[in-house]
Specification:
CATH topology of one domain: Heat Shock Protein 90
Shape: elongated
CATH architecture of one domain: 2-Layer Sandwich
CATH superfamily of one domain: Histidine kinase-like ATPase, C-terminal domain
Strand content: 15-25%
Strand order of the largest sheet: 2-1-6-5-4-3
Largest sheet: 6 strands, antiparallel
Number of strands: 13
CATH class of one domain: Alpha Beta
Number of helices: 11
Distance between the termini: 65 Å
Helix content: 40-55%
């Protein structure tokens, strides 16, 4: 029993059954309509009609004058097609595109249906007659619109099939939304699927994976906090001991190492703190020109080393001002420090566009090798010391910048050429005033 339940919970089996059901319904509907049409075609045929048609044909004898009198008296249309002449009488013309069916048991009689008109054909050696008889019976409309009814039934079957398949595959849409939420950093989001089967088990596996990732991230953050706390305690004791002893030759070097460790501790914690802040961005519309100008102004003595290309056209973007200020500060700091020695100042350009705003920070320093360039945005990765002459920082700035820019729906692209400098391009969606 469990095997059977598991089999029918399979997505493949469900879709197969839906397709088979649709095929069966269409086949049954078309067959019923065809049989009904054939039945209605044969319904006008009986011995009285055959005898009456024989009487009319004998009475007409190919004479259009006599046909006009009979057509007016009976309110019918009569078409005659003979080897030498053809004529019509009455108010019901016979269309050329009629599809005639032979009456059962009589090769001379044929039947066809038009809009509210029945057509009876009678074949004889001297000529063929077609009688157009107004259909005043209740089923006349059904006979003339049977093909529309067939189309409606087929359309209803396909519509039902569509909604059934969409219902079966609805968990896929839920999982897609869940992956988007989790991909943006919401590790508390869960995919809620109310069905059974393979997709429900997939959703359960996805939720289990998200819980495991959330626990690992929480454990990592706790580990960083614990390590930072444990590092600060011995560093504090070392600093106190250094103050109590007579400074030997190596004391200043030890103090330099301690300062580097103290700088490393907040640098390790900072990306994790900013990562969680990305889930609750405080967005506001700012002019990127003004924001960059403010950051450059705060550089103080380094302002002459930075050239900002001013533009009269506003460059409006929707960003978290505090976080994006940190991005601009990091990019300028990298260009000023790691772009040494430089042939000229750091050039900053803000380019407004129709769909996006571009921020370009370019130095004229020694550049970055092709080996290091693809890895510079990885946490803790540092390029060759020859770029700056010394090892400054911990390799977290560009990684943090990339994370913040992507959280704003933008891109951060790094290009460099040895001996010609490095260029960082930040592309953000523009915001209309």
């Amino acid at each position: 029993m469990n095997r059977l339940r598991h089999l029918f919970s399979s997505v493949f089996i469900k879709l197969l059954l839906v397709c088979l059901l649709a095929w069966l319904l269409i086949t049954v509907a078309v067959s019923v309509l065809f049989i009904g049409y054939r039945f209605m075609v044969g319904a006008p045929h009986n011995h009285l009609i055959v005898d009456y048609i024989n009487y009319l044909v004998t009475d007409l004898d190919g004479q259009p004058e006599r046909a006009a009198v009979i057509a007016d008296r009976l309110d019918v249309g009569i078409l005659y097609q003979g080897p030498e002449k053809s004529w019509t009488s009455g108010n019901y013309p016979v269309p050329d595109n009629l599809c005639f069916f032979k009456a059962p048991g009589n090769d001379r009689l044929t039947f066809a249906f038009g809009h509210d008109v029945k057509y009876i054909g009678y074949q004889q050696p001297s000529g063929n007659y077609i009688f157009a008889v107004p259909d005043r019976s209740p089923d006349g409309w059904l006979q003339s619109h049977l093909h529309f009814l067939a189309l409606i039934i087929v359309a209803l079957v396909f519509a039902g099939t569509y909604f059934l398949i969409r219902r079966i595959l609805s968990p896929i849409s839920i999982l897609h939304d869940a992956t988007q939420k989790v991909g943006k950093g919401d590790l508390n989001y869960e995919a809620k699927v109310s069905c059974n089967g393979e997709l429900a088990r997939l959703a359960d596996s996805f939720n289990f994976m998200v819980r495991q990732v959330r626990e690992m991230v929480t454990a990592k953050e706790q580990l960083l906090r614990d390590v930072s706390h444990e590092l600060r305690s011995p560093l504090t004791r070392i600093k106190v001991l250094l103050e109590m002893v007579e400074p030997p030759e190596r004391v200043e070097q030890i103090r330099s190492d301690i300062r580097e460790l103290e700088d490393l501790i907040p640098s390790i914690l900072e990306p994790s703190r900013h990562f969680h802040q990305l889930n609750r961005l405080t967005m506001e519309v700012v002019d990127l020109h003004d924001l960059v100008a403010e950051v450059i102004k705060r550089q103080g003595d380094r302002m002459p080393d930075i050239v900002l290309d001013q533009s009269e056209q506003p460059a409006l973007v929707k960003v978290d001002r505090r976080l994006f200020t940190r991005v601009v500060e990091n990019l300028l700091k990298n260009a000023l420090i790691h772009g040494r020695p430089a042939a000229g100042p750091v050039k900053v350009l803000v380019k407004p566009g129709n769909k996006c705003i571009e921020l370009i920070v370019a130095d004229s320093g020694p550049g970055i090798s092709e080996h290091d360039l693809p890895h510079l945005m990885e946490p803790f990765y540092q390029a060759d010391k020859s770029r700056s002459g010394e090892n400054i920082g911990f390799g977290l700035g560009l990684s943090l910048c990339k994370t913040i820019v992507e959280a704003h729906g933008g891109d951060l692209i790094l290009t460099s050429h040895l001996g010609r400098g490095t260029e960082v391009l930040v592309r953000l969606p523009c915001c209309k005033a």
